[in-house]
Every structure is written in C-alpha cells, then in structure tokens.
Amino acid sequence: MYRMYLKIVLLGMCFLCMSGPAYLFAVENDSNSEHEAPPVHISLDEIVVTASKIKEPVENIPQHVTVITREDIAAAAGDNIIDLLAREAGINIRTASGNDRQAVIDLRGMGDTASSNVIVMVDDLPVNAPDQSGPSISSIPIEQIERIEIVRGAGSVVYGSGAVGGVINIITRKAPDKPTATIYASAGQYDAYTARAAFAGRIRDVDIDLNAGLHDTDGYRDNGFFRKKDFGAKTAYAVTDRLSLKLSGMAYEDQYGLPGPVSAADVQSRTRRVRTDRPDDRGESQEYKGRAGFEMDLDSLGALTVNRGYRFRDNRYILGFTPLIPRDLQKSRIDEDTRQFDLNYTNHYDLFDRIHLFQLGMDHAETEYIRTENPGGPRKNSQTESAGIFINNQWRLTQQMMFNAGMRSNHFRGRFRTDEKKRFDDEMLWINGDITKKKWDNQAYALGATYALTNDTSFFTGYATSFRIPNVDEFSESEEGLRPQEGGHFDIGVRRKIGSRISLTIALFDIRIDDEIYYSDINRNYEDKTIRRGVETDVTFYPTDSLRCWGNYTYTDARFDGSGNVIPLVPRHTASAGLNWQPMSPVDIALSGNYSGSRYDGNDLGNDRYEKLDAYVVFDGKITYHYKDMAVFAGVSNLFDELYSTSAYSESHYPMPGRTIFGGIRWTCF
Q1: Where does 326-456 show beta strands of DSSP type E?
Q2: Distances in Å between the alpha carbon of 663 and those of 331, 595, 656?
Q3: Cis, bond preceding 38 (omega within 30 deg of 0)
Q4: Which position among 113, 277, 342, 638 has the lowest Cβ density within 10 Å, counted as fewest Cβ atoms?
C-alpha cells in the first residue's frame, strides 16, 4: 500500500510544481510590470482541422480540443502512441496485450464499446474497422506523426456514425522543402527492437515521402510476441497555384501471440501473471491502404477537397488451439474490403461587414466483410453502405462571438448472411443462409458558440446529437430488433491564458444515450438510458524557458439512468502530470505519471458480482541527448514496476507490462 501512496505523492508533486511556481510567477508579473515580458510560449489560436475538416483556430471550436505537436511527441516519456494518448484528459487506454496491437482508446467513459464509439483517423481518413476490433493503431508509425488532434464530444454531424465520445485525427508529417533522410533504431527488454528509415523532400515540383520500418518483441508474457513491418509512401504535386494532387499508400503486416487472460489471484503475482494457458493461440494480419485526392482553390467561390480511399484487410487467427485438428483447419479468417469517398466544400462570405463560413460535405463508404470461424464454425457475410451529407455554418456575430450550427442526414443499408458448413458424402460444403436486410436513416445536428471575453480568455458551449449504427459483428450475433443508438451531448467550458506561460482549460460535459449497444451473451440495446457527466481540466505552464510542466484531471460519472449502477470499465477519477526539463542545451529530461481510479469488471453490470479492478499509478521517464543531427535516448516505462490491469471480464484479467527499459538513436542526415 505504501508504494501506491508514494506514487500518488509523486504525482501530486507534479501538480504542486504547476500550482506553486504559477502563483509566484503571476505575482512576480504583477509587482514587476516594468520588467520585460517573458517569451511567449502559450497560444490560444492553435490551428486544427479535426473538428470540422477545415483549418480553424481552437478558440473558434465549441468543444474541448487538445493538440499534441511533433515537439510534444519527441519530448514524451513514453515510446508508443498508446503511452502518448494515455496521458491526455478524458482518455482511458485499455489493451488485452500490453502493446498497441489490440489497444482501445476510450474518450469520455464509453466503456466496453469504446472501439466503436470513438473515431480514429489518419490524415482525415477513418481507420476504424467495420467490426468490433477497433482502429488499427499499430499500423501507424509514431516516427511519422506530425501532430495529433483530439476533439472530445459528439462529432456525428461531420463524421457520421460512431463519433460519440470524440474524434482523434493523427496527421502524418509533410515533406520538407529540403530532401531529408532519417534513421531510427531502438531496443529494449523482452528482446524488443525497432528499426525505421525515412526519406522526404521536394524534388522539383513534387513532394515525396517514403518510410519503412519493422518491430519485433517477445513480449512480457509467454506467447506475447509481436512482430510487424510496414511501408508507406506519399506524394503531392502542385499542378497550378490553385490545384494540387495528392496520392498516398501503406502496406502493413504483423504476427502476434494471444496469451489470453489470467485469474485475479495471478494478476498480482510477478511470476504467474506472465504465464499463459494458451501457448498456441496466435494471429497474423495484412493491411493495405490507398488514397487519392485533390484540393482546388476556387478563388471567390471557395475551396473544394475531394478524396477517394481504399482499405483491404486480411486477418487470420487461432483461438482455442487443439492438437487434434491440423493447425490450418483451425484458422479463422476476416476479409475486409472498404472503399471510401468524401467531398468537402467551404466558402467564406461577407455579410453585415463580417466574414462568415459556409461548409458543405458529402461522404460515402462501402464495405464487403467476410468472417469465417474455424474449425467448423459459421461464415458471416456482410455488405454495408453508408452515405451522408452535412452542412455547417459559422457566423461571426461580433468580433468576440462566433456561432456555429450544422446538421447531417445519413442513410445506411446492409445485407447480412450466415452460412453453415455441412457434410455431403465425404465433402464439407458451405450452404448459404438467408439474407437479412437493414436500412436506417439517421440525422444529427450541432449548435455551438464561442465568446472571447478578452484576448486571453474565451468561453465555449454547445449541444449536439450523435448516433451509432451497429457494426457487422453486432449484427451477426444480436437479438431481434437491434437498432442504432442515439445520444445528446452538452458541453460548456473556458480556455484561459495567464500571462505568456500558463494555459488552462476546464470543460464540463453531459452525455445521454438512448438504446446504447452492448454485448453480454448476445448484442442488444440497453433498456436504460446511459448518462455520463464529468469535468475535464488541462493546465500547461513554463516556470522557466527550460522547464515545461503539465497536468490534467478528469472526473467521469457514468451510470444507467434507471438503476443508478455504474457503467463497467469506466474509472471515476483519472489524472496525469509531468514535466519536460532541459537542464542544459543538449539534454532533455521527461517524466510523466498517470493515475487511474478503480473500475468495475467488464461483466459486472449490476456492480455486485465481481471484484473491482484496482486503482493504479504508472510513471514513465526518458532522457535524450542531442548532438548535431543525432539524438540518443534512454527511458523506463512503468518506473516503479506497478502490477496492474486495464480490463477484466468475470475476474479474468489482462495484465499490463511491468518495468521496461528501452533506448535508441535517431539520426537525421542531408
């Protein structure tokens, strides 16, 4: 128990680091106004694109928005995307494997179905799978990320089905004007190593970006291995000053072990928590993505962006291996073929001597999905199509006040069939099942306003609706009458800059969802309305030019309206704090700590059947030394070797890694 207290004290010291110096600094500014103002570090007019698919300042967005920059990524104490996101307000990361292969990003307490209620995009292209497997986070190399934009709350007007808890847009790096090559290599415990190489630059009028990498680890558990490799390419060509073409593609493949859960007793044992009773369960996948599009400046008529995207996925896996059947006959398989199209038109117009914005968007997605369960299981065939159109308007009522309004109309249709394998004479043949058809028309709308009280303080508020259509997994095993869920979201908050070194955001939210989709023994809609209320706080400040401190705290009360029971797998309290310090020019030191309160077991809807998951505090640290175009780094994840798990079902836990040491080098040449 003293170890938990020690970690909470250390986390609290990070917060005190923020509150104490911040107060002294504010007093110092007031009493020494004749002194020269310190360098400006904090800005409220950060430009983001995720909220509405157009570039706009954060101060114009009536939602809680966070931007993780390239510099933040390089300075972070962790070494992967899930460590990076886990420290942000309102985000709760769960994983069954301890790596990013099966990671679930939960925004605002979505719980067990967060993978279907939070949209993740790469360069504005959604990467969520049509089933319950969620977005393919492991296919995104962290070294290629330029920035990550997190918009909390409903986004169904712009992004359609599934934008319930929020939207995360991962934006990859653009090619620099000067050709540049980068080599990256790292190694760590559990025989882990990563190697990457990238080349990017402008050759005549063409931007080129090529990158490739591989990663291999035995994992912290028996049968916890994970191996992946990827290759990506992007190019852009400015045909004229008003027309540019873009083309990108990615190939990814991996192999991974599936060690499964451990008992509640074993999860607290340093020796037994790493064992598995499923040494032969494993999987492999291949994924290919492509995208082509253009951007056209229509001068006084506005701007037009059109994109066409493709994703192909082949996933094969064995669950419940038995030596009595040949291995190849036990492999289940998922085949996915998704085609996406989106169009976005914007136009700024002058009315009553003020500039306003009109936006029109259309999107369309088709998916063919086949899941074959072996040995001898059914074959699920799905064909889905979704089409939507939305409009947004931003009116600047005064110099300080912006009003936003938008609405979407969405049409969905799907064909679903379950085939059975039956024996005829000595041969097993697939027999097609009956076809089930589904059609839904959904609407969403959003109203919001921002008000700049001063240059340093702005308020925001908004109300929006969301919807989520059941995915193909939920359709294939559901009770009669499964229907889309619909929600209403209310947000209010303030963004405040104190001097030039401190920024603070406080946001309150209230989410009410009818017919929320969940899985118990079968997929169905909750009878009770679900309610999620909470507060999110973010603070960042620079006590000195060489020290950056940050922290956040989130309170989430997620309950069923009728019974008052708490929604499983949603911690009520979460907090993160950290610092980045440059004691001397070539040295960067990063320390961060994440606290997550206790939560109910994933199968404990009544809050009285299973033991709760314990609260935990995890610290990460990293030191980086820069020399010319080279950076050498070393770090420790889970510094105090905390024993914890982020998810459990019927007291079967998925343990997270213990203390992990890593180090590496990054070299930029040319």
Answers
A1: 332-351, 354-372, 379-396, 401-424, 427-431, 435-452
A2: 36, 25, 20
A3: no
A4: 277
Beta-sheet pairing, 303-318 with 401-424: unpaired
Residue whose tokens read 């505090």: 617
Burial classification of residue 126, based on how many CB atoms lie within 10 Å of its CB (0-12 exposed, 13-18 middle, 19 or more buried): buried
pLDDT at residue 101 in the model: 82
Determine how many CB atoms are found less than 10 A away from the CB of residue 279: 14
Distances (CA, A) of 342 to 306, 361, 362: 6, 7, 6
Alpha carbons 337 and 311: distance in angstroms, whole number: 6
- Measured CA to CA, the distance from residue 543 to residue 646 in angstroms comes to 34
398, burial (CB in 10 Å: exposed 0-12, middle 13-18, buried 19+): exposed
Q: Which residues of the chain are modeled with pLDDT < 50?
A: 2, 5-6, 9, 13, 15-16, 18-40
Terminal C-alpha separation, the chain:
53
Domain boundaries, the chain: 2-34+44-669
Q: Of 537, 538, 541, which Cα lies nearest the Cα of 502?
A: 541
Report the C-alpha gap between 571 and 557 in whole angstroms.
Answer: 8
Q: In this predicted model, what pLDDT tens digit does every residue of 268-285 receive, in sequence order?
A: 999 999 999 999 999 999
What is the C-alpha separation between 232 and 289, in angstroms, rounded?
A: 9
Q: Which residues pair with residue 566 across a beta bridge?
A: 559
2-34+44-669 is classed CATH 3.40.50.10610: no
Give the integer Cα–Cα distance in Å for 454 and 541: 19
What integer pLDDT is reported at residue 25 of this predicted model? 34
